Amino acid sequence: MERDQAVTYKTNGQINIILNNQSKEKFDEKDKASSFDLKIPKVEGKHIILKEIENEMSSLVGMNEMKRMIKEIYAWIFINKKREEQGLKVGKQALHMMFKGNPGTGKTTVARLVGKLFFQMNVLSKGHLIEAERADLVGEYIGHTAQKTRDLIKKSLGGILFIDEAYSLARGGEKDFGKEAIDTLVKHMEDKQHDFVLILAGYPREMDNFLSLNPGLLSRFPLVVDFPDYSVEDLIEIANRMMSEREYRFNDEAAVKLKEHLMAVKVMTHPSKFSNGRYVRNIIEKSIRSQAMRLLLTDRYNREDLLTIKGQDLDLSDEKK
């Protein structure tokens, strides 16, 4: 999908959101105040919870449509409370989600923010995040899988159960115990749909194939969110933010070297093999260690030296993607 095609659309009752940092310019032309502002009135003492979440989301690069979706969910919960105060019917909606994206595109980070928002809005009683993968759900004999899955759901009650690489549950076919895990999840999604939120996550192509093998599954996820890969510009912004948080900065040589490397690796690496933000984080952590060794050997510890990452500190030759 081209990165300039940021859209929100509905199919079969699902809200499908294409996150897109490159849509920011078009979005800002419509609303210069904020790239994800829904014009909620800034009334003193109101919407404090939303403001806190917005402040946390502002640290995320791109994801404008996700930020907008979070605000829409907040608005729906808030208005439901106002309807309840007036004795009107309050709609109940399951908030299970599906995140589709390559490694390092922010899926787990967003899941944590969702849990925090839902806890603060009293949608979830705890708001904690339980991360799981196939091995945490699938057992070794008949009946074992269902019990493991039920135990995991029990731990998740009041919060979010986040299952990464969810498509792996369908890899073994009909006779694989992964199908038992899926069936158990589906049952509890219905029975306990307001007691926990299930988020299935994984690579886009594999998740689409997973859904094709389980045609009844998609309808159970009201929110389907795509996390596109970051552009080189996005990755540079992520790098600069990480550096700033750690109180470091690149000199000009290092900045050019990093950009040229990211441009090359994006061209040479298959999207599913590139870990996006995680890749950048690994580079930064490695460069900080290299800088520390350089300063130790040169015995230079003034403020400027301690702050600066130089080109020679960026050893990118064997960096894992």
Low-confidence stretches: 1-40
CATH class of the largest domain: Alpha Beta
Give the termini distance in whole angstroms: 22 Å
Give the CATH superfamily of the largest domain: P-loop containing nucleotide triphosphate hydrolases
Domains, number? 2
The structural class is alpha/beta
Based on CA atoms alone, the radius of gyration comes out at: 22 Å
Number of helices: 12
* Strand-residue proportion: 5-15%
Q: What is the level-2 CATH architecture name of the largest domain? A: 3-Layer(aba) Sandwich
Q: How would you state the average pLDDT, rounded?
A: 81
Number-wise, the strands total 9
Widest beta sheet: strand line-up: 1-2-7-3-6-5-4
The third-level CATH topology of the largest domain is Rossmann fold
Element pattern in H and E: EEHHHEHEHHEHEHEHEHHHE
Described by the principal axes of the CA atoms, the overall outline is globular
Q: Characterize the biggest β-sheet.
A: 7 strands, mixed
Oligomer state of the chains in this structure: single chain
> Percentage of helical residues?
40-55%
